[in-house]
Each structure stands twice: as C-alpha cells, then as structure tokens.
Amino acid sequence: MKLERTLVAREAVAGLTTFFTMAYIIVVNPAILSGGAGMPFSGVMTATVLLCASMTLLMGLYADLPFAVAPGMGLNAFFAYTIVAGRGVPWPQALGIVFWAGVLFALLSVTPLRARLACGIPANLRTASAAGIGLFLTFIGLKNAGLVVGDATTLVKLGALGKPAALALLGLLLSCWLLGRKSPFAFLAGMAAVTAAGAATGLVRAPQTWLSRPDFSLAFSLSPAAALKPALWPAIVSILFTDLFDSISTFVGVSQACGLLDDKGEPRNLQKGLLVDAMATLGAGLLGTSSGTAYIESSAGIEAGGRTGLTSVFTALCFLPCLFLAPVAALVPSFATAPVLIIVGALMFRSVSALDLARIEDALPAFLTIALIPLTFSITQGLLW
C-alpha cells in the first residue's frame, strides 16, 4: 500500500511538472488565433482548455501514456496567418479544414499507413520543415514584440526599441535563464514578469473582473461543407502531414530518450497514442481551435518520474480551473507572449543540426523548405516547393 501511494505521488508530481511546462499554451494559443484570425480570445481560450483537458485525459485513460495534448505551436500559426489571414478563408471554414484533417488522421491512425506515410517523406525534408516552422514562429514573435516591422522598400526592417520591445527582450532573457536551470516555470515566469512590468509602465490595464464563465461560443461553429472546396485541399493535406511529423517525432523521440519502450524496443502503445493525437485534431475543429497534438514538453514530466497514464490524468485535471480565468489570461499582451514564440522557434530550429547537406540534391530542397516557410508566411508553400 505504501508503495502504491509512493507511485501515485510520483505520477502526481510528474503531471504537475508537465502542466506548468506547457501551461503557456493557454495564453499563447488564444493570442495567436485572436490576433491572426480575428477569433474571440475568450472563446479560443475555452476551446484550448477543453481540448487540453479532454485529450490529455484520453491519452492517460485510453493509451496509458504520460503525454499531454494541446494545440500545436506552428499549426496554430499556420491556421491564423496562412489560412485565415493569408488566404482570406473565414475562420469557421478554417475550423472545417481542421476537422477534415482530423477525420483523415483518424482513418490513417487505425491502420499502419500513417507511420508509413511519415517514413515515406525524405528525412531531410521532415527535419527541414521543423526548422522552417521554428523560423516562422520566431519571425512572428519578433513581429509581436515590435522588433521587426514592415517596410515598403526592404519588406522588413528593425523596429524601434520602445517599451514593448524592451520588455519583450527582458522576458526573453529571464525565460532563457530559467530554461538553462531546467525550471518548468520558465515560460510562465517570463510572461508574468513582462505583464507585470507592462502594468507598472501603463501598457497593461487591469480587467474589470478577474473571473468569468467559460465562453463556449466557438463550439461547433465550424463550416465543414465549405471546407471541402478543392482549392482548400492543399491546406487539409498540409495540416495532415505537419501533425503527422509532429506526433510521430514526439512519440518516437521522447519514448526512445526516456525508455518508454515495449519488449520489441518500439514506443509503448504507439498505435493508441497516434489515434488520440488524431482525435485531438478532429476535436479541435469541433471545439473551436487549431489542431491538437502530443506535446514535446511532456518529456519534463516523464523525466520527473511519470511512466503511466496517471501522469496525464493529473495534467488534465490541472487545466480545468483555467476555464474560469479568461480575464486574467487576456491581461497578457502580445509582447509578453513574444519571448515564448522566439524560444520555441529556436528549440524547433535545433533540428537543423541533423540535416544531411553533403549532396546538392539533399541540400537545396532542405534549404528552400527552411527559407520559404518564413519568407512566404506559409508552411504549405515551404513544403510544396
């Protein structure tokens, strides 16, 4: 009995660690979708929390894996800035695109075809796409901080180092310092410090109320029929393959690094984990947010001792109180979330070290993928070209 209590306590600590490591998504995802796609912040936040809680719980109870699920960074930028802002697709229609991508994910996940599709894409292009998305996120972060602005002659230029940019840089330094010390609060502390400094300098105003009811206005607001237009099929395929790469690399990479392997040396319960990941994308379209995927930050909880689905159950429960904190989350300005985008982009860009650039036929496609994703403001174009 004592051993069982010890194991439960260990899984609880692991679940809390995972939650605090990835809790930034509760603020960052609504900021991206409201800023880029014009969706209501409170509605996106409620959808984000519901998706995180329900799909992480499903990951724990069904797949028995210590992985948390949330809207994917990069996928949310693709949704907001490429599909909605870039192509002028109304956000209900864009949610329909996410829904149909989720349907395809689910169909592929019940067969071995999903893993085969992922392996069928050259490894160099899979790695280059991750690095390109990293640059894309960093570019958005620099833009939100005011460090990069538009220019009629040179397209972009260095922005003025005003208060928002200076505070964003301070948040970046603080988060990097905490990350170097393996703190699970690195992103949250950075955002909190910048927001507090913004309030002290008059850039952030306190809300009229600190708590609110959940905003379910985006639930089932998608337009699935309109999303099936042939012109939008490339967007569906792009979400399919981007989430495909994310989930496969997360499950395989973290499982290998943390020893979550079965008797054959394969990632444990991989098929079930992939199916939950697919349902997270389908569910995201229904709830009103961008595609969900397993989070690499789950490795923090696994390193803290999480080994079973009980870790995910505790992480899921941590998200529920956040349903009532929309006014607090709305306090956080875009220049406070900018450091998170920059750092996540840098972490994703690290994959560039695995590229094989010895031959021009490998180097050129990889380079164009990395360059065109941020320069065209489109993950689709980077992959297609």
Walk me through this protein's architecture:
The protein has helices at residues 2-22, 25-37, 41-61, 75-86, 91-109, 113-120, 123-145, 163-180, 186-200, 233-258, 270-287, 298-303, 309-319, 326-330, 334-349, 360-375, 379-384; strands at residues 69-71, 148-151, 155-158, 292-294. The mean pLDDT is 87. The protein is mostly helical and 385 residues long. Strands 1-4 form a two-stranded antiparallel sheet. Strands 2-3 form a two-stranded antiparallel ribbon.
Topology:
Elements: H1 2-22, H2 25-37, H3 41-61, E1 69-71, H4 75-86, H5 91-109, H6 113-120, H7 123-145, E2 148-151, E3 155-158, H8 163-180, H9 186-200, H10 233-258, H11 270-287, E4 292-294, H12 298-303, H13 309-319, H14 326-330, H15 334-349, H16 360-375, H17 379-384
Helix pairs in contact: 1-13, 2-3, 2-4, 3-11, 3-13, 5-10, 5-11, 6-10, 7-15, 7-16, 8-9, 8-15, 9-15, 10-11
Describe the structure using short key phrases.
two-stranded antiparallel ribbon; 385 residues; two-stranded antiparallel sheet; single chain; 17 helices; 4% strand; mainly alpha
Report a brief summary of the structure.
With 385 residues, the chain is mainly alpha-helical. The protein contains 17 helices and four strands. A hairpin with a 3-residue loop joins β2 and β3 (155-158).
